[in-house]
Write the structure tokens for this entry.
Amino acid sequence: MKSMTKLMVVAMLLVAALVVAPAAAARTVSSGDTVYVGEEKLSFDATFVDSGNITKLVHYSDPSAGTVDKTIMVTPPFELTKSDVGTTTGEYYAFNGTTSTALRDQSSGKVDIQIPTTKLDVMLAAGNGKDSVDGKSVTRKDSLFFKLENNLHGFKELTGTAYNMSIDVTLPGGGVTNMPFGENFKENIAVNGTTYESRPLDLSKAEAGTYTAVAKWPKDADFYDKGFDSNAVTFEVRTKAIAISANKDSVVRGNSFTVTITGRSNTLYYLYIKDADLPSDEYPWIVEGQKGLGDLIPTGATKTPSAVGANVTTTAGGTRSIQFNTNVSTDDRQFTIRVEEPGGDRDYDEVKVRVEEGDVTITASGTGVYYIGEEITLSGTCTEGLDDKVYLFMTGPNLAKDGVSLVDLEPVENKNATTFKTVEIEADDTWSYKWNTADLVKTGRSLDAGGYTIWAVSKPRWKDDLSNANYATTSVHLNTAFLTATSSGATVAKGDELKITGTAMGAPSDVKVWIFGKNYYGDFGQLKAQTATVESDGSFEHKLKTGDTKNLAAGQYFVVIQHPMGDGDYGVVENDPADGYINAMAAGMVPVKITGLQASDAATALINALDSPNIDDTYVKLTFSVAEPYIFIDPIGIKEAGSKFTITGTTNVAVGDKLIVDVTSAAFGPSKKTEASGFGSVSGSAVVEKGDGANKWSYEVDAADFKPDQYIVKVECIETETTATANFNVVEADETTPPTEVETTAPVGEETTTVPAGEETTEPTPTPGFGALVALAGLGAVAFLVLRRK
């Protein structure tokens, strides 16, 4: 009995399961049928050749050539899956895989394979019925309908029953219904390849909020549980019939703002700025040519419209955005923009936008102190420039009281933009202008040194009319350019380097260096002015290198350093070097031949030209002398072996030059291999230092290895190719009796110190050296032996 009861329970459960999820019916397809991805239990009827042995479905990219691009292997009854088909849909031919020629025989039968699709949309009933409101907003006054398209024209029945789809609508509160807006969409939409359109839906009582709709299969069908439901569509129902919003609460004049109208779909509205009792050019204005924009100045608008307005038609989604522009003429105040419906019962909405004054700033690069001829960078910001420009002018002592142009110092004219220096404003509201004061000097209207004020204005307004314009100022102080110069020494030895250094303020790129000497005009026999580059800090340096001074004759030289001053152009220049003339670049001045004059006269002629009131260049004069190089060695005297002492001297070679010093024994020479060397020597270098008169040098000697003998000192300057020598003696150290210094003279054949004419020097008298003492000792021994033999 218990066993029978259990069997009955199991049977009831099986029946219940079959009711909940009925088995999908098998489908036998005929040649030419449409088959959909997802179908199951498919087989072929007799309309296919050899239908019982079909093993593959073949798709051709080129049927005439038999080119295959897709093959699906099948064993009836079979399921047509997404992975089998991929994206290759269309006609597939059925073949028996055992027939080698089957792929070229296209008369065996075919099926049209498609992916089942259902596309849902929500449309605006007004107008032509072709405007979708998916993702858009509508009002309760609008009327909508659902539209469902499908490609299931070849699908007749599932499990022996024709199924219809439903539309599920998710309400603003989250609930789901098949009966929105009083209409029933539960399983009443046929899926037979036709397009379904519902009747218009009344939204007058619809809950405000967002709705989402999806077309779905019945739970017991759902296309074999493959999930081929439609896409989702979303729309919003608003309670307010019309609304307007702005993308900005406030805007700096010179910029734009946009208002967005939200109302009924494809509906004309009146948009305008409420009257503010202003001249028409002080209102924001609507940019013409925008989509949805009708006639400007709307007809039929109420409640005191200003002269700014237009008829505007919304999109199918019930919205439209319109841009307003402003400029520096727009009044800085709050404006009310209104939208209203046409007709007698006019709904409306308003939004307020404040237009504000912009701002102007200016700053000058650097410290604010400059030299005439320098470039000054003026920069800043401007948030309301007229025509995207900022206007510059300058005021200062004895200039036009309302300002002058930075370009030519001519007075500016109020509201005449051409008399101002105008600068374009960039997209980020910044501006910049490089004011080269050298260009100003070239106009012949040079500024004197002093303080000046630079003005940046949003409109072309002079100083006396700035009440309705934004402006800013910065102060600059201009100084006259100047020049300083000096040489590295008043006298330079031939072969030494001479430096001419100085400062040239006023931002010249270089200065000219003129040098005149005996038959020398910057070059040998011809006129040539050298140039020295001026660095960013105003410093410059010109070198006469060792190769230059080595070839210069001894004597006095005259130097003129020339600064081009504020205009940056030299007022006096040399002609072709061969003709030897200088040209003064001023009216009424004639060329002067320089190369026929003595050095001092040539320098004077150049200076006379530079001193002309028609030449703005400035200059500095220098002189230096070129002398034959010499080195003096001070008397050294007698030194004890093993002592330390200093050799000193004077010279006219340049400070910093290196002198090579060699100290060697007079008897220093080759020795026998069987003898130990008994002579010493040292060598090194000394650096020339600045002295009270002549330059000086010194060299420390360590005589630890010196033996008593006569020694030779040789001092040499490589740069000037100058040499000097001197002798001194080294004797045995005497601990009790200090050695007596004896002056010596140089041995015959040795080079002596060169002494300029008119100067005297005393050389030490030489005493017998170590070699002489050895010879005398030998003679004494011989005499002793002779006397003894007698």
Notes: Confidence is low (pLDDT under 50) at residues 1-23, 742-790. The CA atoms of residues 213 and 233 lie 5 Å apart.
